[in-house]
Design goal:
This protein is α/β, with parallel strands linked by helices and 396 residues long. Among the domains are: 85 residues, Fumarate Reductase Iron-sulfur Protein, Chain B, domain 2; 62 residues, no CATH class; 127 residues, Glutathione S-transferase Yfyf (Class Pi), Chain A, domain 2, CATH 1.20.1050. Helices cover 47% and strands 7% of the residues. It is built from 23 helices and seven strands.
Length: 396
């Protein structure tokens, strides 16, 4: 079939078809200063887990910033190869700790991922039914997670979980479901729900609220009990609010910033930061997300309320180190190493406080771990979306 070009007469008469209106790029709203803050010095590359493993500039922070900037300006098409380099980012923020210029890489990668789902041909690895129904629909909801995962306890009683994992039969399950099975801890008897108020033991030194979150409360509630007991022993009155929700980390990593903002607003309105000295977290990732929520804003909660809420969030080690922990009476004769959680070390800049507390335990010997601040490969749902790289980092 031959192509019919418009004649000069048609052009002169204004009969040419109208040019289609250019659609704005989905990254047009990203603040240009976030890109320009990076001077491409490369001091961040040694702190990037994927660059350490792959040695590819495109899988390092400055390479990814350069790619995102070119795409945002329309100078580079958003291809599968470009997205692959961005998908491999753990958003661990190790590069932020190393950057002498204060580049906010975390804000940049999250904002860019929000635009990927609306870009032509763009699709996040978390944009699928499994992540919508299982990760955000179940794991990010404490009650649902406890109920659904509790059904799996019978598999332990009959040894089915060991059979599936030991023989490799889990590989016959749907890919993401099978991978999740290998990452979840073996089902145990759930600890009872914490009471609404736990009184201080001895002189009252502080009044705090405990953030229990979603998945941690469903799978590791004993950690919340241990946190509450330590706070009580150090003179803290502890409040546990029933209606609190997920911190939004799962949604943030999935590029769903709107839902993360909504959850932040809900938590901020519930906790009412005026009534407590601190809001205590015991999970690095949750604490980092909660502290950062005040920088955004939400349709349901004013910026002032969010900032007040975020300003009261404290990691348990950060809080106790500042309060002055009472010397533990019991000895632990062991040599231990400490691996830093990314959300704690990079997201919250908390490094020495956990070590300070460990050193106060009588007879305990603390030794440093090589690459203690390099990401373990978990990174919310990264262990599901990028299993090969996650396993490489875990082995490292």
């Amino acid at each position: 079939m031959s192509v019919q070009f418009p004649t000069a007469e048609a052009a002169a008469a204004g009969e040419l078809p109208a040019e289609p209106e250019a659609r704005p790029l989905p990254w047009a709203a990203i603040d240009e200063s976030l890109f320009r803050a990076c001077v491409q010095c490369g001091l961040c590359t040694a702190s990037c887990p994927t660059y350490a493993e792959l040695g590819d500039e495109n899988d390092g922070p400055r390479g990814r910033i350069h790619l995102m900037h070119l795409v945002a300006r329309g100078e580079l098409p958003f291809t599968r190869d470009v997205q692959r380099h961005l998908d491999r980012c753990l958003a661990c923020q190790g590069c932020e700790s190393a950057c002498p210029y204060g580049v906010e890489y975390g804000r940049l990668i999250h904002a860019f991922r929000r635009g990927i789902s609306t870009a032509p041909g763009g699709r996040l690895p978390t944009d699928n039914r499994f992540h919508r129904r299982v990760v955000r629909g179940v794991l990010a909801n404490a009650e649902r997670a406890r109920h659904r995962l509790g059904r799996g306890r019978w598999t332990r009683r009959i040894g089915l979980d060991r059979l599936l994992l030991g023989t490799g039969l889990w590989r016959l399950l749907p890919r993401r479901a099978g991978r999740l099975l290998t990452l979840l801890p073996r089902p145990t008897r759930s600890a009872p729900r914490l009471p609404l108020i736990l009184p201080p033991l001895g002189r009252r030194r502080a009044c705090v609220a405990l953030f229990t979150g979603c998945l941690v409360d469903a799978l590791f509630r004993q950690i919340h009990w241990a946190t509450a007991r330590v706070l009580q022993q150090n003179g803290c009155e502890v409040f546990v609010l029933r209606s609190q929700v997920c911190c939004g980390a799962f949604h943030l990593h999935c590029g769903d910033l709107a839902e993360a903002d909504r959850l932040a607003a809900q938590n901020a309105a519930l906790f009412n930061a005026n009534h407590v000295d601190a809001i205590i977290t015991n999970t690095g990732g949750c604490g980092a997300v909660l502290k950062a929520c005040g920088a955004g804003g939400s349709a349901e909660t004013s910026d002032g309320e969010l900032r007040k809420f975020a300003g009261k969030v404290r990691d348990i080690t950060e809080f106790l180190d500042a309060l002055g922990i009472l010397p533990p009476p019991g000895e632990i004769r062991a040599t231990v190493a400490y691996h830093e959680a990314c959300g704690l070390a990079h997201g919250q800049r908390i490094r020495e406080q956990p070590r300070n507390l460990l050193r106060k335990i009588p007879a305990l010997t603390l030794v440093e771990l090589p690459e203690a601040d390099l990401c373990c490969g978990a990174a919310a749902t990264y262990g599901i979306t990028e299993p090969a790289m996650a396993d490489r980092l875990c082995r490292r």
